[in-house]
Amino acid sequence: MNTANHDAASSTEGLHSEPVSGRTMIAGLFAYQAQAESAIAQLRNTGFTDDQLDVVPSENRERAGLLVTVMTADRVAEALEILTRNGGDTGTGYAHLGSSQEPSPAATGERQRIELRAETLHVNKRQVKTGEVRIRKEIITEIRTIQVPVTREELVIEQHVFKEGEADTDAASNIQEIRIPLMEEQVVIEKRSVVIEEVFIDKQRIQEVRRITEPIRREQLLIEHEKFTDPTPDRLS
Fold this sequence. Notes:
Blueprint: H1 6-9, E1 24-30, H2 33-45, E2 53-57, E3 66-72, H3 76-85, E4 94-96, H4 105-108, H5 169-174
Helix pairs in contact: 2-3
């Protein structure tokens, strides 16, 4: 990169240099070093060489900062756009080297305009995964006791005594053994799966307000007064 050009640093609008035929100087004043470095990096990425670029501190008391200059013959608009995009104040934009320079507003007494810039916060939102919920069913075994009424048969024997002459001796003598089945009810357990409850699962969005704190920078106007002493008038002899 070229050495510092103090004549170019002394003014942000009327830029002066040695005449170079067919070339143009574009200058941008940056209040912050990071902005100037970003502009230089983008200029290099687009093909500008270090011989075409220069960075010098501004010697203007009213507008301190870094002055980035670009020497080019046919890429004036591109260089001007890069300087402006990165926050550079280009003033009149550029000056043709070797041509007559118009006097600056300060020299003609015209009103000058200074832009004060400030950073603003722009908030964007994006969806991020903060967790997940896994839902599943499990089988729990428990003991249930129920009372079931059952019926069973019992043998009931009634003995009847015959009087003389009432008994049938022939019928009684033919029966030697009698089998009587006794029945009872037994409990048979059968288990069936039935729906006893249902659960609905859904998601709902809850909106809340979060307070975000972030430092921002802004420019403020600094005014320095420089007093000049009046010269001592010559005495008449």
